[in-house]
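Students often ask why inverse folding is considered easier than folding. One informal answer: many sequences map to the same fold, so there is more than one right answer. In these notes we will look at a single instance of the problem. The structure comes first.
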């Protein structure tokens, strides 16, 4: 459920007409609904109530949407953060997320990033290789620190999602093979500065079937039993994120958080550990949309081309993953057309939809790309020397620009020309 609704013939974000935001800020612009974020957090938390020992740690996956206002909403709700870089860590801390609720994941942590995380006293490092453990041990020892760690294990489970967001197969770059984990933990116990407290797993993103998750979690449960038998004090299991959301309203709904929570409780009964989760898309995807204006409509060989001012560098998912986003007119007339929706970037890949049935639109009309709150603005770039898209947060009848659109001059001012190239 989201809080983007039609009122008096025009789409609103909560109590704010999207036309007012477009007129004030310009387009394209991302718009987030605070009420939707808050609801999704509440539904996910309720679904996991009673799972594991104590209160589960819900660590928002910052990569999904690192905007400071979005992270502040997570902090206000008491969530932690799953980060994969020093930049994400610093963003989370600046937004008020407690360092002890931060989990540092990712395959390529540098010594510098490790030192930054250690200096902030984060809750846990999710290690992705034995060489990484050796490096972290050295950095922690140099700083006189001890830090809790978990190995991310690769269970060799096919998530059944897009190949580019699948992370749990043996051929993926993430984690250590689950079959070799007992030996890896044995070697880990000899490394100074590290305290092995957990096991982590994450098999992919946008999963629409619980079976792969259940298979992966069952393997983790077996591993925890084996590790404890070997003398390791495992007190936390990080089960990652990945639960899918509805992008295309014509397709069956993915499993609900309640379905997911029931499966987690069933599989983890008897584990005797605190559980951690890393939701990202589930919290913010349907809490955001990309507002865009039609530049012009031109004839096409089979269907008209609807050219909008948003581009692939504003919303990369359709170009990168062939991802489907619902596209609607802000003031629909009831008429429908079949059209190709594209952006202005000089690439054939700058295409949002081909032969899509949609609301009829004309030059100057506003359209919205739905379910764009996750992996939208965070993946944006400046290709074709286009300014980064701004972001707006709405709460009730209030709204604020939470990241302004930088002037085009900033693209030039950020660069320097060496003296030997100046005329």
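Output (designed amino acids):
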């Amino acid at each position: 459920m989201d809080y983007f609704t039609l009122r008096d013939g025009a789409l609103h974000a909560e109590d704010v007409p999207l036309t007012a935001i477009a007129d004030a800020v310009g387009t394209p612009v991302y718009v987030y609904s605070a009420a939707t974020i808050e609801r999704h957090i509440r539904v996910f938390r309720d679904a996991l109530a009673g799972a594991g020992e104590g209160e589960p740690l819900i660590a928002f996956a910052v990569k999904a949407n690192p905007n400071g206002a979005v992270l502040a909403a997570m902090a206000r709700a008491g969530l932690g953060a799953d980060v994969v870089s020093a930049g994400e860590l610093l963003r989370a801390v600046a937004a008020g997320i407690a360092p002890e609720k931060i989990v540092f994941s990712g395959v390529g942590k540098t010594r510098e990033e490790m030192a930054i995380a250690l200096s902030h006293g984060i809750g846990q490092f999710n290690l992705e290789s034995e060489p990484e453990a050796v490096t972290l041990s050295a950095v922690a020892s140099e700083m006189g620190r001890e830090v809790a760690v978990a190995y991310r294990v690769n269970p060799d489970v096919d998530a059944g999602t897009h190949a580019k967001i699948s992370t749990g197969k043996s051929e993926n770059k993430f984690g250590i093979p689950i079959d070799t984990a007992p030996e890896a933990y044995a070697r880990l116990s000899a490394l100074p500065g590290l305290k092995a407290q957990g096991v982590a797993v994450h098999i992919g993103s946008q999963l629409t079937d619980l079976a792969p998750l259940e298979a992966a979690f069952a393997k983790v449960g077996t591993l925890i039993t084996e590790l404890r038998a070997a003398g390791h004090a495992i007190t936390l299991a990080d089960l990652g994120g990945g639960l899918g959301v509805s992008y295309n309203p014509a397709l069956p709904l993915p499993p609900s958080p309640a379905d997911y929570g029931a499966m987690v409780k069933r599989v983890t009964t008897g584990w005797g550990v605190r559980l951690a989760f890393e939701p990202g898309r589930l919290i913010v995807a349907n809490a955001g949309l990309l507002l865009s204006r039609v530049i012009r409509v031109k004839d096409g060989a089979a269907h008209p081309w609807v050219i909008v001012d948003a581009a692939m560098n504003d919303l990369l998912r359709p170009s990168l993953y062939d991802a489907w986003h619902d596209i609607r007119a802000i003031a629909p007339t009831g008429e429908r057309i079949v059209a190709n929706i594209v952006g202005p970037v000089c690439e054939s890949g700058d295409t949002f939809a081909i032969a899509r049935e949609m609301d009829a639109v004309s030059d100057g009309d506003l359209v919205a790309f739905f379910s764009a709150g996750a992996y939208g603005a965070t993946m944006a770039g400046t290709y074709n020397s286009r300014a980064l898209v701004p972001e707006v947060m709405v709460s009730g009848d209030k709204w604020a620009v939470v990241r302004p659109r930088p002037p085009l001059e900033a693209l030039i001012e950020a660069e320097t020309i060496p003296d030997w190239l100046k005329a």
